[in-house]
Amino acid sequence: MSLGLYMIFGVSIFIVILLGIVVVKMIMKKELPSNNYTPFDYIMAQSTIEFHEEKQVKEVDDDHGDDKDKNL
Q: By its UniProt entry, which InterPro entries does this protein fall under (predicted)?
């Protein structure tokens, strides 16, 4: 067997192991992995702010009427 074939086999096994770890964690926690900000994003220049809190989405209650009494 050639070196290239060994490399392809090694990378394939590595990817399968990583996917297996994710699946096991999903089954144990019974939830999907979080996609929150990590410091790695700052290192790889994906974010200009080093650390920030997760933003909370606020819902605004809008009036859903027919606006008959709007100008009174």
A: DUF3951
Supply 68's token pair.
């008959």
Residue 68's pLDDT band (cuts 50, 70, 90)? low
Please give the Cα distance from 47 to 20 (Å, whole number).
29
Q: How many CA atoms lie within 13 A of 60 on its CB side?
A: 2
Read off the tokens for 12. 């394939």
pLDDT of residue 33: 67
Does residue 36 lie within any of the structural domains?
A: yes
Cα-only R_g, the chain: 24
Question: Quick check: 35 pLDDT over 60?
Answer: yes
Do the beta carbons of residue 3 and residue 9 sit within 8 Å?
no
Domain that holds residue 12: 3-43
Q: How many domains does the chain have?
A: 1
